[in-house]
Structures are given as structure tokens and as C-alpha cells.
Amino acid sequence: MKQDYGISRRNFLKNVGIASMGTLLLSSPWLSAFSETTHTEKEKIKLGVIGPGSRGRHLMSFLNKNPRVEFTAICDIYQPSIDETLQMVPNAKVYTDYRKLLEDKDIAGVIIATPLNTHYQIAMDAFDAGKHVFCEKCLGYTIEECYNMYQRHKETGLVFFSGQQRLFDPRYIKAMEMVHAGTFGDINGIRAFWFRNGDWRRPVPSPELERHINWRLYKEYSKGLMTELACHQLQTGSWALREIPEKVMGHGAITFWKDGREVYDNVSCIYVFKNGVKMNFESVISNKFYGLEEQILGHLGTVEPEKGKYYFESVAPAPGILQMVNEIENKLFDALPFAGTSWAPETASANKGEFILGERPNYGDGTDLLLDAFAEAAITHKQPKNIAEEGYYASALCLLGHQAIEEERTVAFPDEYKINYLNHKR
Question: Domains of the chain, with CATH numbers?
Fold first, then answer.
């Protein structure tokens, strides 16, 4: 059953805890996509999906509930994916050549969820065919491709979204509003990590389909953890600091999954902003204990948007014996310049923090609202402010990190690929 789009939007604003759209737009101007929903209630958009594999169908599952969206065509070269997708949209036309889908004049926009190395040509052809584009991250296989895609979007005036769902996640939106209001003081560091424990492989029914199905594991099609995972988290840095880092250094290796894959299973990068603030990204897929998170570190407090929590540096004094032990240690070590308290009450384990939205998160990650915003923007032919720019730089930064890893050197952001956004001016 199709959802009530108006109710969905009202619940979103309620979750964020802000009654005024004007206040919300200060930290997240791309939310302007929702500003005209009451004027377009009866309008619909016809979309095509290029690459309805597991990710493509996941995206479709949200838009299939939107009463303003109709999927009229799908394109894939893998029959099992086609068969599963037709269970969702039984009346959709089926293509095996995306160019034929793009010739359909009734289709106003496309969702691209194909392997990374194919994004660029499909997106450029879609723009040339007059289609609005939602492209999964990373946008392109190289920074040049991402740049050209962004420029084609600007030239055509067509709507351009990428799969950066954190931009529409209530936890992140509220967290960034607090960051920008100075709630946590000066931001002096960002730590981002994504840990999993699995080989990232999918079952292959026949050996000749190995690279077709497990494309993420091979350099010809993918750049591994940096393009598949880092793209989400690096965008958090530019959002929080309202600045693009100037350079990056990093290292990668295959340390555990030595199974014939070509991409790293262990990566680490340091991104440096012009004022010296650093953003670290790390990903290991042989240990999942710490999961994923971005930790935004201010001199007054810390925010962890994925957990939906924040922590102030100053916490209430520890009770009873713990406080007494701490006071004794303070006196004991006070005259020793090399020592400090070995048991301080303001340790991470003692600071339980507060929920960003007042309660434990019990909703999605923003994917549904990201896709609804794309549909709304495509209906109104209005590109929401900053969303293409945030998506472009998120892709560019993960590719820059991959370059630093491959070349084993510090890499500066190339001037020729800077756009007129934040601290980069053209």
C-alpha cells in the first residue's frame, strides 16, 4: 500500500525535533526538496531502474511505497535479478540494454545501481537523454568522471542525486545543527570507522559469473572499501566543518581475506584540513566489534550521530569511593610532572551521554527520505541546494584517499577538480 507522503514528512520533522523548516534549512538546505509537497500531491513521475540487483531493489522498495512514483522500466543483464524485480513491479518493461530504456520518452528519471565502473557512461548518457539522475555512490571510478558528471548536471539543469542517505537521517541533521550552533565547541578532529567481519562475497551459481556477481572484489570494477563504505562517512566531515580537506595520506593491505580478491580488506586514511584539523577513516572487514561510527570531537563535547548520542566533556562528579580514590591520586601525583590521575571519573565508560533526539533511535537511516526527495525534485524540476555538491565531494574524497593508498604518498586535492563550494572557489 502506498504511504501518505505528507504524514511521512511530518513524522520526519517531528523526529528531528524542529517545527520550522526555516530552522532546518540552515544546516541542511537540501531539505528544500520537501517545501512544495502540498502543491504537487497529484503529480506523478515515471522512473526506470538500471541495475536492479540487491541494492537497486532495496532502493525500489522505498519508492514503491511513494504514491507519486511509478516504475515503468528496468534494465539488467542478469536474469535472476530481473525475475526478482518483476515480483515488485510486474508491469515494468524489461531491457537488457540501458540505452534502449533511455529512449523511452515517458521515463523522466533513472536510478543507477550498477557496478561502479559503469556509473559514468550510464549517467552521462542519461543526462544527454534528458533524464533526471539518481546514481549510487561512489559516483564515478575516477575523480575526473565524478567532475564531468557534476558539470553535465550543471549544464543540463537536470536533477542530480547520489546515494548519500545521511543527508536525510534525522540523527545526523540534528547533530549537525548542534555542531554548527557551537554546542560542542571548536571541532578539532573527526574519527570515522566501519568494521565488519565477513568476506564480502556473494554466492556464484557458475564460475564464469564470479566477476559479474562479486565485482566489488576486483580492481577493474571497484576500488573496494574506499568507494563502497568510506563515501558515506567522509561526507560527514565536510558537512560538520563546512570545509573540504586539502590533502590525504593512507595505507591499505589484504591482511586476512587472502582468497584471490584484488581490493584491500584493511584501509586507513588521514584527511587534513587547512587549519590542521584531521579526519581519520579506517575500515577492517575481519572484526566487527566496534561496528561503524563517526565521532565528531569538539573541545566542549563529542557527538556520535550513528548511535544518536552526544557527550559533554564535563560530567557530574563520581560518587563515593571512586571520587575519594581520584582525589587521593590527585594529591599523590600532583608534584610529579610526568604523571596524572590513573583513574579519572570522566572516562568514556563513565560518561553515558544523551540521545540527540531525546530517545534511542528507532527509525531508518534516511534512505526513504533521500529517495522521496529525489522524486519530489524530479517532479518540480528543482535541484535542492548543495546536495549535488555534497555528493560530488564525498565521491571525490574517497577516490582521493584510494589514490593516496595506491601511490603510498600524500595527495593534495587537485585544483582542476575543485568546484565553487565551501572553501573551494573556481
Answer: 5-167+365-387 (3.40.50.720), 170-363+395-417 (3.30.360.10)
- 3-state SS, residue 111: strand
Query: Can you say how many angstroms the Cα of residue 75 is from the centroid of all Cα atoms in its chain?
Result: 25
pLDDT band, very low/low/confident/very high, at 5 (cuts 50, 70, 90): low
Taking only the tens place, the pLDDT of each residue in 200-256 is 999 999 999 999 999 999 999 999 999 999 999 999 999 999 999 999 999 999 999
Q: How far is CA 210 from the centre of its chain?
A: 27
Please list the residues that pair with 296 across neighbouring strands.
190, 303
* Dihedral pair phi/psi, residue 395, rounded to 5°: -65, -45
- Is 86 strand, coil or helix? helix
pTM of the model: 0.90
| 124 close to 330: Cβ distance less than 8 angstroms | no
DSSP 115-183: -GGGHHHHHHHHHHTT-EEEEPSS--SSHHHHHHHHHHHHHHT--EEES-GGGG-HHHHHHHHHHHTTT
How many CB atoms within 10 Å of residue 131? 24
